[in-house]
């Protein structure tokens, strides 16, 4: 995705301040009010292998949505799948979710973008979404999605729904042994998350970075 960072600015500006982002921030603030079980960033890293394994189980759901088997889900395929599953999302909601997750603006969601889509669907705790979670078979993935939400809450120290550079440094320095990690490590991780370079990381940006951290590569389908 590194090659397309320059083309993401418009998409990012459109998402920032959108109704969907407002819902995400509100949902994350509500979750943050309950606290997090994580005590250190090391605790997040320890969960990488299990999360990677769980992500790869999403492949079956991805293939169900990818009707022409071209390795990407376009907007029409997403609409068709929601219709077949009788999930009552409006066209606007479907389009908003699609555009939020199509980070490289090529009008198609690849596998790691689809994982982000599933996580966002999970976070939106609305009646239609609860219905979607059941029909899309996300029940078995709930523990993984909870871990991701928990990890973001751990990073979001002031509970405003975003992660800042200072919060990332503070989180990286909170280790179970009491040792302080290098600020360079914190800044590198932050830069990997801050796609739009505005100094604040949303849950969506965090998810995209996380898929890379655990080894879900956007071009992995090309190797099959």
If you had to describe this structure to a student in words, what would you say it looks like?
The protein contains 13 helices and 2 strands, in the order ααααααααααβααβα. The protein has 224 residues and is an all-alpha fold. The chain has one domain: Recoverin, domain 1. Helix 11 crosses helix 12. The longest helix has 14 residues.
The overall number of domains is 1
| Helix/strand order | HHHHHHHHHHEHHEH
Fraction of residues in H or I helices: 55-70%
CATH architecture: Orthogonal Bundle
The CATH topology assignment is: Recoverin, domain 1
Residue fraction in strands: under 5%
How many strands in all?
2
Q: What is the count of helical runs?
A: 13
Overall spatial form:
globular
Strand order, biggest sheet? 1-2
Q: What characterizes the major β-sheet? A: 2 strands, antiparallel
Q: Output the CATH homologous superfamily.
A: EF-hand
**CATH class category:** Mainly Alpha
**How much is the average pLDDT?**
79
Oligomer: single chain
Determine the N-to-C terminus distance.
Answer: 19 Å
Uncertain runs are 1-14, 219-224
What structural class results from the helix and strand content?
Answer: mainly alpha
List its salient traits:
224 residues; mainly alpha; Recoverin, domain 1; two-stranded antiparallel ribbon; globular; disordered N terminus
Would you summarize the structure shown here?
This is EF-hand domain-containing protein. With 224 residues, the protein is mainly α.
